[in-house]
Write a structure and sequence with these properties.
By secondary structure, the chain is α+β, with helices and mostly antiparallel strands. It has a single domain, classed as Outer membrane efflux proteins (OEP). The chain contains 10 helices and 6 strands; from the N terminus they run H-H-H-H-E-E-E-E-H-H-H-H-E-E-H-H.
């Protein structure tokens, strides 16, 4: 029985995550996948368009302080019109006080002189909304990068799992051939051969399941990056270093000052941006009922001037208007009340985001500690399983072992090695999640 292939392969898997966490280097193909995701992911493009629309709304708010110039023209036919008759040279002459055909064309100019800060508040409100959109884009980009990384390392984990499973199939197949030979020689039972054959089929079915999971991970990478054939050639190498020991991932202490963590976490930053936007809404609401001082004027031509009412004449008008809102059915008070309630809700949202961050880190710390402890226990279990299989191999060569004992020894090594690899992979995911919560970029 050639069990060395199983040992040699799984030995390569024991320290990959430690090397990854200690080096802190991102594989080149993973970095390329993240760049592809940033360039192709539809949600990012949608949010970028929303930011551009928000910036346009800022410019729209600024136009309130710019002049409005309009070209106006009108024609109105009126009948009857006021008129009277005057005797001139012995006959009556009709004099009109207004023309039947009324013409008026002019260029008008309107300019807000002062609105007591309403426009400035509107500009600030639009700017705050753009900042919220930008923060949302940052969160999407961060989450996308970590999704790509998790899928990438998942591909490497599953590819190594396939290698281990192929070794299990090879070892079990060798046992079937060995037991078949002994059956012909009368040194084994048909039951032993059939049991090992079942073990081969079970291992093959497990390989099919791992292959299915691998294809799903590749499909996820295709969705995230927009690349139908994502390059994951180096993923398997992230689990192939011949280094032993536990993964160097430590829980994050919650006992100290968390100000820097709260300042770096994207979700908390988004909640704070929304709080600032709500504070600006209060300012906007408080200035809604303020007066407005504006200049208006026009210059053009019109008819209707006595005594020749049909003659077009140049005309010009200019003035300053003051509008002071006096009563609007409690509209302004209700708007202020709604803005204040929204501000209170935004404050609670910041507290909620901070509390959720603490909870997420605490839960992640529990997972890290648990996975570290189980990985440490598995180190001992792996050594014991290997020793047991070595003894089983010796007994098999001497013909003094039952099939049940042999299968138990093989299964023990397989489960211990795959279990250790799985916990190392889980610790890698824990590290990625911790970096995301701390606001770190890949």
């Amino acid at each position: 029985m050639k069990s060395f292939s199983l040992f040699g392969i799984v030995l390569l898997l024991t320290g990959a995550v430690q090397a990854q966490t200690q080096s802190g280097q991102i594989p080149a193909d993973l970095r390329a996948l993240v760049q592809q995701a940033n360039a192709n992911y539809p949600v990012l493009k949608q949010q970028q368009q929303q930011i551009q629309a928000g910036e346009v709304r800022v410019d729209i708010a600024r136009t309130a302080l710019r002049p409005n110039v309009n070209l106006n023209g009108s024609y109105t036919y009126i009948t009857p019109v006021p008129q009277f008759a005057l005797p001139v040279n012995g006959r009556d002459v009709v004099a009109k006080l207004a023309p039947n055909n009324n013409l008026n064309g002019n260029v008008s100019v309107g300019q807000t002189i002062y609105d007591f800060g309403r426009t400035d508040a509107a500009i600030r409100q639009a700017t705050d909304n753009v900042q919220v959109l930008r923060r949302s884009l940052e969160i999407t980009q961060q989450n996308l990068a970590y999704q790509v990384a998790a899928a990438y390392y998942g591909v490497g984990f599953l590819q190594r799992g396939l290698i281990v499973q192929d070794s299990v199939i090879k070892t079990a197949g060798a046992n079937v051939r060995l037991l078949s030979t002994r059956l012909q020689n009368g040194d084994a039972l048909e039951y032993d051969v059939l049991t090992q054959a079942v073990r081969v089929k079970t291992a093959q079915n497990r390989r099919i399941e791992i292959q299915n999971q691998l294809e799903k991970q590749l499909a996820l990478l295709t969705f995230l990056t927009g690349n139908p054939t994502p390059d994951v050639s180096q993923a398997v190498n992230q689990f192939s270093l011949t280094v032993t020991g536990n993964v160097a991932v430590q829980p994050y202490s919650l006992n100290g000052d968390l100000t820097s963590v709260l300042a770096s976490n994207k979700e908390v930053q988004l909640a704070q941006d929304r709080l600032r936007s709500a504070e600006t809404d209060i300012l906007v609401s408080s200035r809604t009922g303020k007066p407005t001082i504006a200049f208006n004027g026009n210059a053009g031509y019109k008819n209707g001037y006595p005594l020749n009412v049909d003659q077009l004449r140049a005309n010009m008008a200019a003035g300053v208007a003051l509008v002071v809102p006096l009563y609007a059915g409690k509209r302004y008070q209700l708007q202020n009340q709604a803005a204040q309630l929204n501000l209170n809700a935004s404050r609670y949202a910041v507290e909620t985001a901070s509390a959720q961050l603490r909870q997420s880190i605490a839960q992640l710390n529990a997972d890290i500690s648990s996975n570290q402890a189980r990985l440490s226990n598995l180190e001992t279990q792996v050594l014991q399983a290997r020793k047991a299989l070595q003894i089983a191999n010796a007994r098999l060569r001497n013909g003094v072992i039952t099939n049940v004992e042999l299968q138990a020894a093989e299964t023990g090594v397989e489960e211990a090695e795959l279990g250790r690899l799985n916990f190392q992979y889980q610790l890698l995911l824990n590290q990625l999640e911790l970096k995301r919560l701390l606001g770190e970029s890949l």
